[in-house]
Amino acid sequence: MAVDRAERALLRHVVATLAYRGGKAIRDLPSGVESFRPAPGSRSPLEILAHVNDLFDWARHLFGGEHFWNDSIPTNWADESSRFHAGLAELDRRLAAADSLGFPAGRIFQGPFADALTHIGQ
Q1: What are the E-state strand segments in 5-117?
Q2: Which 8-state DSSP code applies to residue 113?
Q3: CB contact set of 11 (below 8 Å; sequence gap of 6+)
């Protein structure tokens, strides 16, 4: 499915926004904060970051025309932070390429990208 330049540019802008806002949120986290839970049953920062990374994986699968979801088990803050940056770089690389996306840009935005934007604010 062809994605016009404006849609692709919008998705790349969202990736840049996630990189900027998410990068600020995960940088220089005080020791021990990654496991903090504000309430019983809530996600810790480490679990939120792993979930955002899972959303990036989902988006990459959507780019390839496949609807695939995997709940990963969080590893540690350093690994999940590296996974975050690598995932963003891969999303941007795929959006910069001329390849068509497997799903409409609106579906990709409303699914993994909108969800990731919500969690970055947590």
Answers
A1: none
A2: I
A3: 3, 95, 105, 108, 109, 113
Rounded CA separation 70/77 (Å): 19
* Exposed e or buried b per residue across 64-92, where buried means at least 16 C-beta atoms within 10 angstroms of its C-beta: eeeeeeeeeebeebeebbebbeebbebbb
- pLDDT single digits (tens) 45-60: 999 999 999 999 999 9
Neighbours of 16 (CB within 10 A): 12
25-81 pLDDT tens trace: 999 989 899 999 999 999 999 999 999 999 999 999 999 999 999 999 999 999 999
CB 56 within 8 A of CB 82: no
d(CA 23, CA 68): 26
Sole residue written with tokens 């904060």:
33
The model scores a pTM over 0.85? yes
Task: Give Cβ neighbours of residue 25 (< 8 Å, ≥ 6 apart).
Answer: 120
Half-sphere exposure (Cβ direction) of 64: Cα atoms closer than 13 Å: 10
